[in-house]
Amino acid sequence: MKTRLGLDANLPVTDIVSDAIKLVWLQSGFVLSRFFPFMLVLALIDWMGQVLFPEQSGSIMPFVFMILSMLLGVVFAIACHRFALADTSVPIAFKWSSDHWRYLWRGVQIGLVAGLVILLALVVFGLLSPGLLGAATGSTGGETPAISGPAIVVAIFALMAMMYVTARLSVTLPEIAVGRPSSLRRAWMLSKGNGNRLVAVVWIVPVVLALPFLAAYAVDSTLMLFLGALGTYIATLVSLITLSLSYRFLKDLETESSGGSDTDSSDSGFSA
Fold this sequence. Notes:
By secondary structure, the protein is mainly α. The protein has one domain. It is 69% helix and 0% strand. It has helices at 13-26, 28-51, 61-84, 98-128, 130-136, 149-169, 173-177, 184-190, 195-214, 222-257. The chain starts with 12 loop residues before the first helix and ends in a 15-residue tail after the last helix.
């Protein structure tokens, strides 16, 4: 895919991931002094929620730790975006502001859209083949229903559709992080032609980076649980920087394609 100026408009996922890793390495001193202590806190909160208050304990504390982790995760995410987009005038600060509420609300919007996409996919399959979803469980008599092949196909299709839509809608999260107006419509337009590549950026790359650390959760050790959580946040740092660099690439393409003028990002449509 080319822009009207003949520029390659395909998002170079491999190069961007490489640039994200290089940025963390070259700025390792800053990362260790500013980000690492916060990642330790996040990992400690996750560890405490799992070890001190397991879900089967019936306590409300796991939910409290989950909410705390989510809110601090928003603070961490915005700091990562601002670090990657260092050319902005917005400071990197680990404190809550109006931008954090906007970022959180955009995350809620994307989550609602994800649920809607999955529901629509199931409804479409149900209408096209009314007996598919009913027979997919393979229930007979009083036996425990088993998941059949058709159910797996439907689930995979719904999951792929959800990943595609949410990846495209997530591309302007860095834009919100630096205090600029944005909307779901703008995210959809900015990501046009790069949906599959953004699936790699938003979904595949984070999973691949975190996979070695997620394996630590399989070990019956409280220390490994903490190290796994810490490693996951390190992978998240690189993943968020990758998303930020992807946004900057697409934003630069948009500016160049429009003749050098900065396109207004405050268009209508679920603005954050």
